[in-house]
Amino acid sequence: MSQSESFKDNYLTLQTIAQKLSNNNEIDIDELIPMVDEATKAYQLCKQRIEAVEQALNSRLDNETENAIESE
To answer: What stretch or stretches form a coiled coil here (predicted)?
Structure first.
């Protein structure tokens, strides 16, 4: 399972699993649940990271806007 908090590592995990599922006509049923679990965890970590970056950018933009208004 993906233990990394890195967006890049988790995104690569998602890509790898998607490729495995897309390229195989016959998927080993015993591998399916672990792959879905790993993909779900990687997706959640990517989503959390995107949301954190979005929040940080919005906060900085809000601060810049406030500073610009105060300067006028």
So the answer is: 36-67
Burial class (CB in 10 A: 0-12, 13-18, 19+), 42: buried
3-class secondary structure, 46: helix
Mean pLDDT by 10 residues, the chain (72 residues): 76 96 85 95 97 95 80 72
Number of separate domains in the chain: 1
Q: Are 43 and 14 in contact (CB under 8 A)?
A: yes
> What domain range includes position 35?
7-71
> C-alpha distances in angstroms, 25 versus 3, 31, 34, 42?
29, 14, 18, 24
Q: Give CA–CA dist 44/38, Å, rounded.
A: 10
